[in-house]
Structures
1.
Amino acid sequence: MDAGGFPPATLSALIALVRKHTGIAMTERKSVLLERRLRPRVQALNLSSYQAYLDKVEQDRAEVPHFIDLVTTNDTLFFRTPQVWDYVEKEFLPKWWSEHQGQKLKIWSAAASSGEELYSMAILCEEFLESHPGFSYQIHATDISRQILALARDGQYTGRSVERIQSTHPDWVKKYFRPSANGLRVVDALKRNVELAQHNLLTPLKPARQFDLVFLRNVLIYFDQEQQQIILQQARPSMAPHAIMIVGESESISGLNTAYQFDRPMIYRME
Ligand SMILES: C[S@@+](CC[C@H](N)C(=O)[O-])C[C@H]1O[C@@H](n2cnc3c(N)ncnc32)[C@H](O)[C@@H]1O
């Protein structure tokens, strides 16, 4: 196998292949990261070069999901960016309830990764339900990576992923998690109103839904402006007229020509 980095032609072909299958705009600067991620797979398949692996991805559709899993970044944790969750708990939920009593709150975790974001939301919904009988919710969680969605479905967490919730909300850990072989597993009650599905954000969500709250966090950063615009356009038909969209801390969509109105950092409303 090639030692010490990709040959330039292989790197260009790899970047093109990442873009073809995920839309993600990688640059040559990611070469070391990509090599670290691809190496074990190339070795496991007993291939002689990275180029041979790229050829396999092109020719063998069954390899594409593995390739997507390898090139996507799935970092996440429970209650990531606390001010977002403060907003959801203290402002969004009470306001939504006062305006939509009797309806079901529909939430989309649009790049759900291993599920920490969607289960953080489920915890806030379960807590809200205790003080607001009649409240109901549904969380639709999607990601391009089937492998990461399998982890979300399993719902077992350990390490950095649960450190914050363990220190800030030991009561919630006791209530919503059970010790498991690999750390902590979310209780079934948190999974009750959750559906998980594979979805590429660059394509339309089918069927389109009328979500009240959309988490599109820490995924736009992987795309160039043109692709970001496409992602936001594809999400638009799934947003209710009053919907709120939440993006990541280092993401802003204000500069893009879209129908989303800035409310405050990370929070956008529909026009
Ligand atoms: C860093 S994680 C974000 C997790 C969570 N939203 C958060 O903020 O903690 C980014 C996720 O985006 C997913 N992703 C990357 N490209 C995608 C695409 N084209 N469509 C859908 N999901 C994608 C990755 O698989 C990864 O799980």
Note: The domain at 8-71 is CATH 1.10.155.10 (Chemotaxis Receptor Methyltransferase Cher; domain 1).
2.
Amino acid sequence: MFIDSHCHLDFEAFDGQRDALMLRCLALDVMGFLVPATTYEAWSTLAVLAQQYPSWRVAYGLHPYFLKEALYRQVERLGEQCEREQVVAVGEIGLDNWPGAVDMAVQMAFFSRQLKVASALKLPVILHARKSYDLVFKCLREADFKEGGVVHAFNGSLEQAKRFRGLGFVMGIGGTITYPRAQKAQRVLASLDTNAFILETDSPDMPLHGFQGKHNTPLSIPSIAHHVARIKGMTVEQVAAQTYDNLLSTFPKWHEGLL
Ligand SMILES: [Zn+2]
């Protein structure tokens, strides 16, 4: 059984296709989905969709790249939202050092406030960190954040991975490792402990090698697992079982509220 630990199935790209996609996922043994929110406006849509798909788990948060319209009072509502809806994490939150993103000081303020919400609720976080690992470490340290979580789309060094591990985080491993040019990411993965990572697609983004320009879906998870198995010298079944264990220890509320 596989889980996609990061997919934006609430995005419009999936409108009209979700039922069929869920059935196709089932046929490939992709049985669970963690869908993190991105903007405040998207929270209500996600809450409605999560009711319809029992295999989804959700997280709410304000994504750093989409903070342009965001207001601090939305962070105040984050706690209520997480308590009202059954969540497994707060996210996706973090820092995005990419052209077009809002000022880093503003991002850090939002990130720190959202870390406080997660701490108060004892929830792990889904970290979005692009070209910003040092600043993310700084914010985690200043917030004295202890709940851990996942570093979504991890693409750092082994040393950075170890530092995140020390703070209770696992690394999110996705389609990047399927590219022949991603030798550094593959080397880091080869050296990671088997309990240090989980699988994700970031659908509809981050298509696998050979599928550039296409919409990504959780159907890519078995293929990612296949690459991980080759890199780690494990069987695909071992990768599936190990990453499921890793997911459950990262998100202890995964099975809460299940039928
Ligand atoms: Zn995402």
Note: The chain has one domain: 2-250.
